[in-house]
Amino acid sequence: MKICFIGANPKFNGGISLYQKNLIEYLKKSKKDIAISWIYLSRKNEKYSKKRINYIGLKIPKIIFLEDILFNMKILKILKNNNFDVINSHAIWGKWMKNYTKKDNQKVIHTYHGVTYYFLKNSLKRFGLLKKIIFSPLLVFGYIMENSPMKKADEIICVSEKVKRHLSELYNPKREMNVLRTGVNLKNFKIQNKNKVRKNLKLDTNKTYGLYVGRGGYWTKGLDRTIKISEEICKLDKNYRLIVIGADYNKVKHLLDKKFIIFLETVPREKIKLYYSASDIFFCLSRYEGGAPTLVVSEAMASGCLLVCSKDSEQEIIKNNENGLIIKNFDEKEAKGINLLLNSKIKKEEIIKNSLRTIKELSFELWGEKYYKILK
User: Fold this and answer.
1) Is the pLDDT of residue 261 over 90?
2) CA atoms within 13 A on the CB side of 25
3) Which of 88, 121, 220, 316 is most buried when burial is the number of CB atoms within 10 A of its CB?
4) What is the pTM of this model?
5) How many CB atoms are closer than 10 A to CB 259?
6) For residue 221, how far is the Cα from the chain centroid?
């Protein structure tokens, strides 16, 4: 079976790219009779094969929003000249379907990792009235870019119930949609000896560590919220430190002038799991997320972190005070609640135990097999 994936650049270690890498890893391990191609937006034309995957990078100039339109146009030429049995596009890279004529016995699948219209609508909240007026036409961009798969894809995959609900509200489709939550590799992400890992990372074994991991837009991902509540926690616990991984320093340096922050702009993917294991708390204080759980949330849960998420991140698998904490104010009161829980060994261990039980239902193998059945 020849499968073509269309999505993020494989050289990027985050978001949709990691999602696709995980899916392809599962298929390579468990389904030997599959030929895989990966089409992605690139700054140069490139075509090569590596570890049984054919990579096709399409050169597109870096022009915000326009680059995604041009990428979708170039995808068409590749698809018309190749006989793939299955085409699986992701996120906003499904617009090509509008002008594509499907071949005999070919299956077209699209995965929504969020809904761009609502993502952009949420992003407008950070602006004043004038900027909102200037940038509001971008909502039309979001609507147009993601409507084609609704009409033309054989199957739709949504990474959460929220994404399915938003698609239904926006497009009112008369069709079925699959909800398939993001899986996690429980062999890679697991509880490890905290003191041993901290020594390996040269972290103080007597400190309390919070963790933020996010490469995308810091405002949407809630880095400012994480720092705000961490500052309150630090007032209660002088041994508290916040590890920030992945944010673009030039964009967030104005937020990092706090003594309790340990900033690491880049950490190798294989080392990220150690920081999860070394940390006591993982923060997901996003203002908008598609996944529920997001990939980093599932990895943190599997690693035994106490999860603290914002109400508007809508991590649907989390129930407050059962398998994580849900907060909405990021203030002194919320910080006291987190600090109290950290010092309550029995309650903290109960929540983490429930969190581990929850995430085991989203194992890499179960997720991969469900996805494969849709592809098949």
Assistant:
1) yes
2) 14
3) 88
4) 0.94
5) 6
6) 10
